[in-house]
Amino acid sequence: MSFSAQIIAWYKLHKRDLPWRKTKDPYPIWLSEIMLQQTRVAQGLPYYLAFTEAFPKVEKLAAASEEKVLKLWQGLGYYSRARNLHATAKYVSNDLNGKFPTTKKELLGLKGIGDYTASAIASFAFNEAVAVVDGNVNRVLSRYFGIDLPVNEKTGQTLIKEKANQVLDPKNPALHNQAIMEFGALQCKPKNPYCHLCPLQKDCVAFQQGKVDLLPVKIKKTKVQTRYLAYFIFQDESQQSLIQQRIGKGIWENLYEFPVLESTQKPSQQKLQQELETNYKMNISSIEKANPKPIVHLLSHRKLIADFYLVNTQEIQQKAIQKNQKLINLKDLEKFPVPVLVANFIKSYLL
């Protein structure tokens, strides 16, 4: 039995019941693939269901405000995915009359769609015979063929793609691709894979040579940097507060947060006082820390250490409001899309 036949047989017995597998419509398939980039299925599924309920068609997503899209995305992280999703929905809806391109080559022209996503949509929606290569496929093929080249470098990825196309069943590309991805997610896991029950065991180089735990090889390239965030939660006697929108390119672009002092070192009380006096000219009656311990939030390339300060004032005057800030009532905080770090604080300490 061929590699493809074995994993397809395994898949038919073990596959998870997921809504995007029950359709050939490229819109929900595209939506699921964008959401599941660097996101576990269990985490992404509720967001997928929320999006398909709010935006059942690509035209609905295109017509939505960016603020609403970001609010629904809140908590999934990598917010550029949401912004690209929205931009592509507008393009497909307005320029392509709501019709997605049908080939990998054409799909690659859409914003936010790279080689993997284009291959997945072309395969799952249009049955194009192209191999899908994601983290799960990297792991399965690295172990099966005993590939010890780094999968996150060009030479390793080129060889993986070559092998992926070699084992692809051209008559059943959609089924094959779903099967190998699911096999990597459930059977050939990163840690403690089920090698003793694996249908590929006999021909798996890593298993035969005792190298399962050593593959795939991945070179660490990102140096994690530490950043300190001191958030100021202004509140006056009428429960008015200030929030600001992140401007410029960055992972939290266009999301809202409280006014913040960012630094590479933990700011002193003197530094905090100086920031308030210099940039927020208002009569402050008291300042108190809202969170007992610093809140640590880990990103792929950042370690964020945050503290939140309640800053009480009699009145927030218009002249104290900066260009990217707005005056809101504290009870309306939940209406705005915010980074998950801020959302968790609001949930734990303000609501």
TrEMBL record:
InterPro entries assigned to the protein according to its UniProt record, in alphabetical order: A/G_AdeGlyc_MutY, DNA_glycosylase, HhH-GPD_domain, HhH_base_excis_C, HhH_motif, MIG/MutY, MutY_C, NUDIX_hydrolase-like_dom_sf
Name of the top EC class for this enzyme: hydrolase
Catalyses which reaction(s): Hydrolyzes free adenine bases from 7,8-dihydro-8-oxoguanine:adenine mismatched double-stranded DNA, leaving an apurinic site
Record keywords: 4Fe-4S, DNA damage, DNA repair, Glycosidase, Hydrolase, Iron, Iron-sulfur, Metal-binding
Required cofactor(s): [4Fe-4S] cluster
Leader sequence segment: none
Entry note: cofactor: Binds 1 [4Fe-4S] cluster.
EC annotation from Swiss-Prot or TrEMBL: 3.2.2.31
Domain HhH-GPD: 35-186
Database matches in SMART domains: ENDO3c
Reported function: Adenine glycosylase active on G-A mispairs. MutY also corrects error-prone DNA synthesis past GO lesions which are due to the oxidatively damaged form of guanine: 7,8-dihydro-8-oxoguanine (8-oxo-dGTP).
NCBIfam families documented for this protein: mutY (TIGR01084)
Family statement drawn from the similarity comment of this UniProt entry: Belongs to the Nth/MutY family.
Protein name according to UniProt: Adenine DNA glycosylase
